[in-house]
Fold this protein.
Amino acid sequence: MKATAKRRESAGRERVVKDFDFRRPNKLSREHVRTLTLLMDSFARGVATQVSSQLRCISKVTVLSVEQRTWDEYVQESPAVGNVSILRLAPLPGASLLYLPAELSFTVIEMLMGGGGAMGESTPERGLTEIETTLIRGFTERLLPELRLAFDDLVTVVPTIIGVESSPQFAQIAGPTDLVVVIELELTIDRLTSKASLCIPFQSLQQSLEETSAQLQLANMQVDVERSRVRMLNRTAEVTIEVAARLQAASISSVRLSSLKEGDVLHLGVRTDEPLTLWVGERATHRVTAGKRGRKTAVEIASPMLLDETAFTDTLRG
């Protein structure tokens, strides 16, 4: 030991002594924090999309921190009044909570009722009424699928709301000295920027975090190909895209183009029975035949397979 100390002194390095709190040992490792941060980033993106969809406004959600605290510290640092949704993350043991401060809750309620979101500028000094609590609960329930998707790479959970309170101190999901994982989120909705938090007892996540190798979790946060395909199809099944059926392109001189007038016939050099090309955005995808369905113009797929690269290039050259 003396030889080691002398070598340190000779190298110009000093001993570094770190404080250790026996009342709150650090059980949340750096790898755990990085893993949870990745999961919560995914949750934040999903929440931003859901909030924009529900409130019809531009919103932004950012993960500020992922920290370990005691339950008593979390309660003391949280504002006294707000909306607390007590969550059951089955099959994880215990309960968790999602906290929305009063200013954020009243702004969401106003916008759900068709207001302009100015409530955040002057928050009423009172708790939520029964009707307001019901509105916020419905708003929160539509965010829970995003929490399930975010945790899917760590553990499969089914989030449900099992209770609603006005303050974390009434929720009592852990003992005063029990460790909890606190994820702080910053939400920007309309003209309001506020902070929300997700609080999960460390004991609920401990087994899942320990069973998942930190390095494997960070390097290979992927699911098998078939599962990814199914999830992607489920997420994109209701996405609408614009399609257009077009004739092949033709070339004319600028003089001819400038001389066109109403009633002129422009020869495209294409036979009347030749199939059209179906376009999705700027990409040709199918050969189709023009026709009618009822009183509306329609096309019939003549070639159900996507055009190969050669056909696509020939279509562009037209």
